[in-house]
Design brief:
Its EC number is 1.11.1.6. Residues 1-22 have a biased composition (Basic and acidic residues). There is a cross-link at residues 336-359 (3'-histidyl-3-tyrosine (His-Tyr)). By secondary structure, the protein is of the alpha/beta class. It has four domains: 7-62, Cytochrome C Oxidase, Chain J (Irregular); 75-374, Catalase core domain (Catalase HpII,  Chain A, domain 1, Beta Barrel); 454-526, Hemocyanin, N-terminal domain (Up-down Bundle); 532-677, Class I glutamine amidotransferase (GATase) domain (Rossmann fold, 3-Layer(aba) Sandwich), CATH 3.40.50. Helices cover 26% and strands 16% of the residues. The chain has 17 helices and 18 strands. It has helices spanning 7-12, 52-62, 158-165, 181-189, 194-200, 248-257, 261-271, 326-331, 350-366, 448-456, 459-474, 479-489, 494-500, 547-559, 609-624, 634-641, 656-669, and strands at 75-84, 103-112, 127-135, 138-145, 215-216, 221-224, 230-239, 277-286, 312-322, 344-345, 536-541, 563-568, 572-575, 581-584, 586-587, 598-603, 629-631, 650-652. Strands 1, 2, 3, 4, 5, 6, 7, 8, 9 and 10 form a ten-stranded antiparallel sheet that branches. It has a six-stranded parallel sheet with strand order 15-12-11-16-17-18, with helices on both faces. Strands 13-14 form a two-stranded antiparallel ribbon. The chain starts with 6 loop residues before the first helix and ends in a 9-residue tail after the last helix.
């Protein structure tokens, strides 16, 4: 755990409670003498209504749950801090983006979108990536996703999208999945969704971990400097460990083996001191260049290709402390894209404009009233003063007789601040036009960037997208919906639809396609950072293993930042041939190969047929998911017997130094996609 404390930590101290060694009391502080039995009229008599302790305890229990979020219900959070690399004063007057000497406390919530609070975490879905900056000028919320575009262009369609994505109302199925009729019917009938659907069918929708996925603000915002000059901006979070994903078969099995896989990974990495890090990047376009692109910069279904508008890396966020209480922090945190500070402003993106209303409205019902900003996790670190009073859950005890503006009785305080005093002033954009329900013509190209995305993918990523369409649409019962999707995506790529159409019983088109040839290599995960750091390797050992070589190998892997866990038949310890004992972390029954990034097979002199059978299953499954395999001593024979040797990413050898070096390189590579043809 990090020993460095932030201003938010100090503020939260007053709300933290340690119950250890304390007497049990009621919520009002009365010490309780008995908590096992309710108050009765005789030992076998009825419970008495006067039992205030029972009534308080049961009433609190009955009201412990708040409505789960309609979307992003399944999530997990962590505390952190943000450090600026270089001042952005030429773009913005936001203090936390100007002063490199300041450390800004942050709170991040990662989430799936479609599923309920109890759903699986490795489903194919968009992931939320929302960050609250506790700045000295107020809270700034960067409420984003791990995909930089969205399904729709106007917020008025958001209820329709979510209704189509959620379980179908007549049977309440499927949970946390988009493989059903209503979702794909919505996509086919709302063709602005083409670009986002491509991302959702890509590996981006099944991330390896929260620590290894990008984050995007999605919308175009404005940065405004002290001189009043504005620039359009898009925000990015770049994971220091690179952007990596699961494979689909693996993702489905993990949902069965470990429903909490993503939150467990985040929690344990922070507990172990392997703090997740993300660099903040910005894309900036001067206002005068607004119309110099072949897309509308305000369109939330479009990216700004990084080759055209480079991402400037300006700071880093480190997540270094887990939550103390999941409900009080993860569940009660309230994000809002309208929470901005001076120097950050909005644009006319119609999806963003609608979110500025929706988020406040949502929190009112979820958190019981207008005072959700007073909950500890939502409080700003700077003081706040206004004339708002009363309401559910009010915690502030305001003094004085005045609760209105303007006033003379309190000398018109609290007083509005001028812009020079730090008061927020909206960017004075000139707007004019007739009141219409319409959409700009510049928003009506729905397929060019979907094709750009397809063109940018590596061969194995394209194959995964074809497989994803085949799986998702294979679950769609309506033949007409399947046909509509094939027709729709023939505007994106003939190669794509000719790949999946036969798999879903639709005759593939022979003409159509797109004339777009442009690609953006930055969109492909094949071009991401590859590191061995924090990769998790399962080490398969039996009694009588070569402890001298294994010990050296494990030490060298640890030196490279690789996390190893010992797997064997039984819990307890196993003993090497020289007497060294190692603690068994998991057995073949309590863990699975899908929960590791790679396997290192060693075995031992006392391995039996059951052990070999389990080990072979682990190795074959990991191989089928294109993962690195390492083997020394008896493990080399297992690879040979299972015909797994001789492939890329399969490393053998009995020299600890040479093996560890080569195996580390293999682990860093993450996957060996040439095995897709095996």
């Amino acid at each position: 755990m990090s020993n460095k404390r932030t201003s938010k930590d100090e503020q939260l101290d007053q709300f933290r409670v340690d119950d250890s060694g304390k007497h049990l009391t009621t919520n009002h502080g009365v010490k309780v003498s008995e908590d096992e039995f309710s108050l009765k009229a005789g030992e076998r008599g009825p419970t008495l209504l006067e039992d205030f302790h029972f009534r308080e305890k049961m009433t609190h229990f009955d009201h412990e749950r708040i409505p789960e979020r309609i979307v992003h219900a399944r999530g997990f959070s962590a505390h952190g801090e943000f450090q600026l690399y270089e001042s952005l004063e030429k773009y913005t007057k936001a203090d936390f983006l100007n002063d490199t000497s300041k450390t800004t406390p942050t709170f991040v919530r990662f989430s799936t979108v479609a599923g309920s609070k109890g759903s699986g975490e490795t489903v194919r879905d968009v992931r939320g990536f929302s960050t609250k900056f506790y700045t000295e000028e107020g809270n700034y919320d960067l409420v984003g996703n791990n995909i930089p575009v969205f399904f729709i262009q106007d917020a008025i369609k958001f209820p329709d999208l979510v209704h189509a994505l959620k379980p179908e109302p007549h049977n309440g199925m499927p949970q946390a999945a988009s493989a059903h009729d209503t979702f794909w019917d919505f996509i086919a009938q709302n063709q602005e969704s083409a670009h986002m659907a491509m991302w959702a069918m890509s590996d981006r929708a099944i991330p390896r971990s929260f620590r290894m996925m990008e984050g995007f603000g999605v919308h175009t915002f404005r940065l405004v400097n002290k001189e009043g000059k504005a620039h359009f901006v898009k925000f990015h979070w770049k994971p220091v460990l690179g952007t990596h994903s699961l494979v689909w078969d693996e993702a489905q099995k993990i949902n069965g083996k470990d429903t909490d896989f993503h939150r467990g990974d985040l929690f344990s990495s922070i507990e172990d001191g392997d703090y997740p890090e993300y660099e903040l990047g910005i894309q900036v376009i001067p206002e005068e260049d607004e119309f110099n692109f072949d897309f509308d910069v305000l369109d939330p279904t479009k990216v700004w290709p990084e080759e055209d508008v480079p991402v400037q890396i300006v700071g880093k966020m480190t997540l270094n402390r887990n939550v103390d209480n999941v409900f009080a922090e993860n569940e009660q945190v309230a994000f809002h894209p309208g929470n901005v500070v001076p120097g950050i402003d909005f644009t006319n993106d119609p999806l963003l404009q609608g979110r500025l209303f929706s988020y406040t409205d949502t929190q009112l019902i979820r958190l019981g009233g207008p005072n959700f900003h007073e909950l500890p996790i939502n409080r700003p670190v700077c003081p706040f003063f206004n004339n708002q009073r009363d309401g559910y859950g009010r915690q502030t005890i305001n003094r004085g007789q005045v609760s209105y503006h303007k006033n003379s009785l309190a000398k018109n305080t609290p007083t509005p601040a001028s812009e020079e005093e730090g008061g927020y002033s909206h960017y004075q954009e000139k707007v004019e036009g007739h009141k219409v329900r319409a959409r700009s013509e510049s928003f009506k190209d729905h397929f060019s960037q979907a094709t750009l995305f397809w063109n940018s993918m590596s061969d194995h990523e394209k194959e995964h997208i074809i497989q994803a369409f085949s799986f998702e649409l294979g679950k769609v019962e309506s033949e007409s919906v399947r046909e509509d999707i094939v027709e729709m995506f023939s505007n994106v790529s003939l190669e794509l639809v000719q790949g999946f159409a036969p798999n879903i019983g639709v005759t593939p088109p022979q003409s159509g396609g797109s004339d777009v040839t442009k690609a953006s290599p930055a969109l492909s995960q094949a071009n991401t950072v590859h590191k061995p750091d924090t990769r998790k390797v399962g080490v398969i050992l039996a009694n009588g293993f070569n402890d001298k070589d294994v010990k050296k190998t494990l030490e060298k892997l640890s030196d490279e930042g690789i996390v190893t866990e010992i797997i064997s038949e039984k819990q307890g310890t196993i003993k090497g041939e020289s007497g060294t004992e190692l603690k068994v972390d998991h057995t073949f029954l309590t863990i699975d190969s899908v929960l590791y990034d790679a396997l290192y097979a060693v075995g031992g002199k006392e391995e039996g047929e059951a052990f070999k059978k389990h080990a072979s299953h682990f190795l074959n499954e990991a191989f089928s998911h294109y993962k690195p395999l390492g083997a020394t001593h008896n493990g080399i024979e297992w690879l040979s017997l299972n015909k797994l040797d001789g492939y890329n990413g399969v490393v053998t050898g009995d020299d600890p130094s040479g093996f560890a070096k080569e195996f580390t390189q293999a682990v860093a590579a993450h996957r060996y996609w040439d095995r897709q043809m095996v």
